TrEMBL record, chain A:
Keywords: Cell membrane, Membrane, Transmembrane, Transmembrane helix, Transport. It comes from uncultured spirochete. The keyword Phosphoprotein does not apply. CDD domains: TM_PBP2. InterPro entries: BPD_transp_1_N, MetI-like, MetI-like_sf. GO terms for molecular function: dipeptide transmembrane transporter activity. This is Glutathione ABC transporter, permease protein GsiC. It is found in: Cell membrane. Belongs to the binding-protein-dependent transport system permease family.
UniProtKB/TrEMBL annotation, chain B:
Residues 1-248 form the ABC transporter domain. It comes from uncultured spirochete. GO terms for molecular function: ATP binding; ATP hydrolysis activity. GO terms for biological process: transmembrane transport. This is D-ala-D-ala transporter subunit ATP-binding component of ABC superfamily. Belongs to the ABC transporter superfamily. PANTHER family: D,D-DIPEPTIDE TRANSPORT ATP-BINDING PROTEIN DDPF-RELATED, TRANSPORT ATP-BINDING PROTEIN. Keywords: ATP-binding, Nucleotide-binding, Transport. The keyword Membrane does not apply. InterPro entries: AAA+_ATPase, ABC_transp_ATP-bind, ABC_transporter-like_ATP-bd, P-loop_NTPase. The lineage of its organism: Bacteria, Pseudomonadati, Spirochaetota, Spirochaetia, Spirochaetales. It holds the Pfam family ABC_tran.
Automatic annotation (TrEMBL), chain C:
NCBIfam families: oligo_HPY. Residues 8-259 form the ABC transporter domain. This is Dipeptide transporter ATP-binding component of ABC superfamily. It comes from the Bacteria. It is a peripheral membrane protein. GO terms for cellular component: plasma membrane. SMART domains: AAA. It holds the Pfam family oligo_HPY. The gene is dppD. It is found in: Cell inner membrane. SUPFAM superfamilies: P-loop containing nucleoside triphosphate hydrolases. GO terms for biological process: peptide transport. CDD domains: ABC_NikE_OppD_transporters.
Length: 308, 258, 329
């Protein structure tokens, strides 16, 4: 199959995913008890007040009409206005998103820089010091929750030894600790995948053939095996990056960073339905886009595209 | 056993090489007389196995009919078809995947017998007899497949096929994975069984030499079609189709070598 | 160099594999000489030690499970088994090269065919990138893949299995090796393709004057390709002779039984010969002839006295007490 058809297929899947998630979000919010109109109006509102708010929110219309209206707007990236601040949800999200994205990207970079080289080395030299370092790191990474690591890092590197700021997001330095807490946990998983993938490739027949060709050890490991080993890692990294965005939301709390996480948390506290809806769908879109990008990248890099 | 105009069209299932609407078996008609060994020879992908599966209605043919003992299999309802299918058994190339690794030999062999309601005493007797018949000591019947060699496993698979008292056996490359000395034992066994139990075989192989040794009639399959069919001697002496000639010329070491 | 001297010589090679406390005697004193411009067929059943012989020559035995107990492999007066890895590496692919059974697995899926040839000639022959590409093109032409330039830029999965095997052969001969090992190179192929590959190997041998070790379980294939044949049983060469001599007058009962166990159209209905009993348990090391427990001719001395591989007729060696005498099975 050619690349164009592949991309088209994946795009279709992306659209379907977003549609499905939008649908779920829409209905789940309407199933949860608690009429937003009542909430906004307060206890001493008259029925007419409430009706007015309902009309404003559009919740007085039939569910199907609301649903299709919602989908139509989602298609235009219009999630309505926040019930609290009355600003457009999209604008609110886009305002906060760069910080979260920067955090996730930096976390990804830190995670990759830790995971891939150690993963490769521990596969190439099993039972060596590298392998043990890798093993301990992946255990720790999976066992320690990132928010705990964040608090710990804050205590050590911002309070005891103040090299990094305690909060705020004014400089890149302020992102280092949160990005590290975020990246470390994901690095654990990436490291395991890298090690497994690399050792699998090293045990394959073409490695024997490469030895029979008289290639140097370095060529065999870091050219022949590595290229094959990194291919599946692209997909894993894509998924990891998606998680990273989700994880950023918690880490933002720990480090008091004004990113998407705080925005959504407030939205949930205040039952700001349009904002919650918009936030979930937005994250879903970003997540799908990242996976889509990873898939496309994978198929471009991998000559042997295995499609379905 | 008759096949008339069998066609099997694969609707592109994404399996490599299978294009949309690929005719894996294209208008094949064969007739196998009772008590004969009918050889079907061809290279990988020629449609041999697809034809075998179509004959047994494991994968029903897209069109055409299969007559077994004068009865058209396609016209039978599932319970009747199952009854007929018992009389026709198939043995595949790979005895490793044919046996459930978690079932003992005894369990594998008794499964079918339990299904048709044979009581335990008769079951045990039958299994003992069949294992002896294929050269596996019945004291091994409580062992698992992995405790046997490949050749022994193929014997067990043969014994399992025989539990149903079949009249017709399809042998799909039954000795291809075996060493020559083991291959010879299995072939001898198959020849003895055929004689003793008055079986009819459809013998499928890529090895023209082996097929000519075993079979009374040979059909050469290429690209889903039977390109030539003749009694073995005639086929070897006067191959008519260029592909048959090519196959003959490709027998390593030459035909009639040892 | 003396033309009659062997190009490569294996002497008394003993190899043992240890796995989970179990020790398997894979090779029990192999002796073979390979000559320039000759295809030497090594035939035997699975587990007989064919591939271990090949990997021993290449220095590719899996470590640490494999252990060379004794023996030597001489190439140009040097014992390859004693050679440090760094030096041996310069022989692999350059002087001694290998073709494997399943090209789909032994070609690297992530690199183009051209690149897989180029890296080798650049490393061993010091060619520039441009010269390497030209060499790759020339080689592909030589193995019959040159009709269009497509194969050069193709990935292995884009080629048919026959083409893959041709590509692997092109890689193996890229540095004009003196000696080529082909380990069941046609076993995974259809018969018509097999015929073509066998022909190709023969042609290439003639062009390059290589010595070839051709390994197969199939006596028919061996008969088709080999000039000289060695029969291996339980890690030992039991018979070695020129092709005509071996097929006309096999001296070892095992060789004879192998031949008789192959079905043949001319003998339809006749029972095939079988070899009674089981292949020798590789964990044991019995006295005497290893084939004795299965041999119809065996007598008392066969179980105590090990028959040596000796020349009974010119160029015809056999390791059997009955060799050189007339016998019937």
């Amino acid at each position: 199959m050619d690349l164009a058809r592949f991309i088209a297929k994946r795009l279709l899947r992306l659209v379907l995913t977003v549609l499905l998630i939008s649908t779920i979000v829409f209905f789940v919010i309407r199933v949860i008890p608690g009429d937003p109109a009542l909430l906004i109006a307060g206890i001493d509102a008259t029925p007419s007040d409430i009706a007015a708010i309902r009309a404003k929110l559009g919740t007085d219309r039939p569910l199907s009409a609301q649903y299709f209206d919602f989908l139509w707007k989602v298609a235009h990236l219009d999630f309505g206005n926040s019930m609290i601040s009355e600003e457009p949800v999209t604008a609110l999200i886009l305002q906060r998103f760069p910080l979260t994205l920067a955090l996730a990207v930096l976390g990804m970079v830190i995670g990759t820089v830790i995971a891939i080289p150690i993963g490769i080395l521990s596969a190439v030299k099993p039972w060596s010091a590298w392998d043990y370092v890798g093993l301990v790191m992946s255990q720790l990474g999976m066992a320690i929750p990132s928010f705990w690591l964040g608090i710990f890092l804050l205590l050590v590197f911002a309070v005891k030894i103040p090299i990094f700021p305690l909060f705020g997001a004014e400089t890149l330095a302020s992102l280092v600790l949160p990005a590290f807490s975020l990246g470390f946990a994901r690095a654990a998983i990436l490291l395991r995948h890298t090690r497994a993938s690399m050792s699998e490739e090293l045990s394959k027949e073409y490695i024997i053939a490469a030895k029979a060709k008289g290639l140097t050890d370095r060529m065999i490991k870091y050219k022949h095996a590595l290229k094959n080993a990194l291919l599946p890692i692209i997909t894993v990294a894509g998924i990891e990056f998606g998680y990273m965005l989700g994880g950023a939301i918690i880490i933002e709390q720990v480090f008091s960073l004004p990113g998407l996480g705080r925005l959504f948390l407030y939205a949930i506290y205040q039952r700001d339905f349009p904002l919650i809806q918009g936030g979930v769908v937005f994250i879903a879109i970003v997540f799908s886009l990242v996976n889509f990008a990873a898939d496309v990248l994978y198929s471009v890099v991998n000559p042997k595209i295995r499609l379905e | 056993m008759q096949c008339r105009n069998i066609v099997k069209i694969h609707r592109g299932r994404g399996v490599e090489g299978e294009r949309h609407g690929f005719r894996a078996v294209d208008n094949v008609s064969i007739e196998i007389e009772r008590g004969r060994i009918f050889g079907l020879v061809g290279e990988s992908g020629c449609g041999k196995t697809t034809l075998a599966r179509a004959i047994l209605y494991l994968d029903p043919p897209t069109s055409g009919s299969v007559l077994f003992d004068g009865v058209e299999l396609g016209s039978l309802k599932p319970p009747m078809l199952r009854k007929y299918r018992k009389r026709m058994q198939i043995i595949f190339q790979d005895p490793h995947s044919a046996l459930d690794p978690r079932m003992t030999v005894y369990d594998s062999l008794s499964e079918g017998l339990i299904n048709i309601g044979v009581d335990k005493a008769r079951r045990d007797k039958k299994i003992r007899e069949l294992l002896d018949r294929v050269g596996i000591s019945s004291t091994y019947s409580r062992r698992f497949p992995h405790e046997f060699s490949t050749g022994q496993r193929q014997r067990i698979v043969i014994a399992r096929a025989l539990t149903m008292d079949p009249e017709f056996l399809i042998l799909d490359e039954p000795v291809s994975n075996l060493d020559v000395s083991i291959q010879a034992q299995i072939i001898n066994l198959l020849m003895d069984l055929k004689k003793d139990l008055n079986l009819t075989y459809l013998f499928i192989s890529h090895d023209l030499n082996l097929v000519s040794y075993m079979c009374d009639v040979v059909a050469v399959m290429f690209g889903g079609r039977i390109v030539e069919q003749a009694p073995t001697e005639a086929l070897l002496a006067h191959p008519g189709h260029p592909y048959t000639r090519r196959l003959l010329a490709s027998i390593p070491g030459g035909a009639g070598r040892f | 160099m003396d033309e009659s001297a062997p190009l490569l010589k294996i002497e008394n090679l003993n190899v043992r594999f240890s796995h989970r406390g179990k020790s398997v005697h894979a090779l029990r004193g192999i002796d073979i000489s390979f000559y320039k411009d000759e295809i030497h067929g090594l035939v035997g059943e699975s587990g007989s030690g064919k591939t271990v012989t090949a990997t021993s020559i290449m220095g590719l035995l899996p470590r640490p499970s494999a252990e060379i107990i004794s023996g030597s492999v001489f190439y140009k007066g040097k014992n390859l088994l004693l050679m440090p890895e760094d030096e041996l590496r310069t022989y692999r692919g350059r002087a001694i090269s290998m073709v494997f059974q399943e090209p789909a697995k032994y070609l690297n899926p992530a690199f183009k065919i051209g690149g897989q040839i180029e890296e080798m000639v650049m490393l061993h022959m010091g060619l520039s990138k441009v010269a390497a590409k030209a060499r790759a093109r020339e080689l592909l032409k030589l193995v019959g893949l040159g009709r269009d330039g497509r194969v050069l830029d193709a990935y292995p999965h884009e080629l048919s299995s026959g083409m893959k095997q041709r590509a692997m052969i092109a890689i193996a001969i890229s540095c004009n090796p003196d000696f080529l090992i082909a380990d069941e190179p046609t076993t995974a192929l259809d018969v018509t393709l097999q015929k073509q590959i066998l022909k190709l190997i023969r042609t290439l041998k003639n062009i390059e004057n290589m010595g070839v070790l051709f390994i197969s379980h199939d006596l028919g294939v061996i008969r088709e390709i080999a000039d000289r044949i060695s029969v291996i049983y339980a890690g030992k060469i039991v018979e070695s002779a020129g092709k005509e001599s071996l097929f006309n007058k096999p001296m070892h009962p095992y060789t004879r039984l192998l031949m008789l166990s192959i079905p043949d159209a001319r003998h339809r209905g006749r029972k095939l010969a079988t070899i009674p009993g089981q292949v020798l348990d590789a964990t044991s090391t019995p006295e005497g002839c290893l084939f004795a427990p299965r041999c119809p001719l065996a007598e008392q001395r066969c179980f105590s006295l090990t028959p040596e591989l000796v020349e009974h007729e010119k160029g015809h060696l056999a390791a059997c007490h009955f060799a050189g005498k007339s016998w019937n099975l």
